[in-house]
């Protein structure tokens, strides 16, 4: 488990001593200065010493001249779409961190992972880091610890054993949606799954939750691909109009697809919720003012931001934190779902 390093972060002097070279040679190698005439053997020794020590260049001094920020809190961008509720959580966390007087930034690179990503983040000398677990593995965690990071939390589909974890379970989003429709009396339901590859893993989990609830309630569940545009659902909506055995409700991966579905159904002359119920997820800000107001599944993003901020405060003070749990995922019932129309 991640424990803050109590010694100071390694310096170029430490690298020089470990490699048996001068600080100037370390500077030549790590800054890749031209015409430095450093042998390949010496270059290898310096790079290996820096890797073993977890050394990364300190940008604090050069930031005075260049205007670059040195982060107190660093949020790394994610490769995957974990749902917009978690996105709002991270936005709120950045805002709260800034309000507390801490320099905070969102690092937008998504190409690097493992030690390469950690070296990239460590160059900004952050005190705290929040990173996707698929990008921040055990080796990256150790490098960040050696670089002086005092608080690290990783997030992903499952908890890890090398750092405090934030896990937001995705299956309840689909399960709660189908359970709501089952309680209303629906027996045929469609799940609208995104075509965006970045959302594939999250969609798979939400669909698994929907299937679990559908099996328990004896509901027939079908799956249709969709994007967040009514055009992508036009053929699906028109086919629905002429199918006597069409589902009477749709569970969308998120509210953006749900709103696109409502629009596509309206264009086909199908009324929501009189003819078809539609439910989304993640409580998009536009959903509450949409026509009809959109039923959704979500959790309290602001509350999770507070939990994360508390965890970072504890870790900075030396308290061990094992994991951060998301608030309960709940239904927000509005106007877009109702009992199925009678045959």
TrEMBL record:
Domain HTH lacI-type: 10-66
Keyword vocabulary terms for this entry: DNA-binding, Transcription, Transcription regulation
Keyword DNA-binding: yes
Any Pfam family hit: LacI
GO molecular function: DNA-binding transcription factor activity; transcription cis-regulatory region binding
Top-level taxon of origin: Bacteria
Coiled coil: none
Protein name, UniProt field: LacI family transcriptional regulator
Organism listed in the record: Leifsonia poae
Organism lineage string: Bacteria, Bacillati, Actinomycetota, Actinomycetes, Micrococcales
């Amino acid at each position: 488990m991640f424990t803050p390093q109590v010694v100071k972060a390694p310096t170029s002097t430490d690298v020089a001593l470990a490699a048996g070279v001068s600080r100037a040679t370390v500077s030549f190698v790590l800054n890749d200065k031209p015409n430095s005439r450093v042998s390949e053997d010496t270059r290898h020794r310096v790079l290996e010493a820096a890797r073993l020590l977890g050394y990364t260049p300190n940008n604090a001094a050069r930031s005075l001249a260049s205007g670059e920020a040195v982060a107190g809190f660093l949020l790394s961008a994610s490769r995957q779409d974990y749902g917009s509720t978690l996105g709002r959580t991270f936005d709120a966390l950045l805002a709260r961190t800034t309000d507390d007087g801490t320099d905070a930034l969102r690092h937008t690179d998504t190409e690097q992972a493992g030690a390469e990503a950690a070296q990239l983040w460590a160059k900004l000398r952050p005190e705290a880091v929040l990173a996707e677990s698929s990008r921040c593995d055990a080796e990256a965690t150790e490098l960040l610890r050696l670089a002086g990071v005092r608080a690290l939390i990783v997030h992903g589909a499952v908890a890890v054993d090398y750092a405090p974890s934030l896990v937001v379970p995705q299956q309840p989003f689909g399960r709660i949606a189908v359970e709501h429709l089952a309680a209303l009396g629906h027996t045929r339901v469609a799940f609208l799954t995104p075509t965006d590859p970045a959302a594939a893993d999250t969609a798979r989990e939400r669909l698994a939750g929907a299937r679990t609830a559908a099996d328990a309630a004896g509901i027939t569940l079908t799956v249709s691909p969709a994007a967040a545009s009514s055009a992508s659902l036009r053929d699906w909506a028109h086919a629905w109009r002429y199918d006597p055995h069409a589902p009477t409700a749709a569970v969308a991966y998120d509210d953006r697809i749900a709103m696109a579905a409502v629009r596509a159904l309206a264009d086909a002359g199908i009324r929501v919720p009189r003819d078809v119920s539609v439910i989304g997820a993640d409580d998009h800000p536009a959903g509450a003012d949409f026509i009809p107001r959109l039923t959704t599944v979500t959790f309290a993003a602001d509350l999770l931001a507070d939990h994360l901020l508390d965890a970072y405060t504890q870790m900075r003070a030396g308290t061990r934190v094992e994991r951060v749990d998301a608030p309960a995922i709940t239904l927000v019932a509005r106007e877009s779902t109702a009992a199925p129309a009678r045959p």
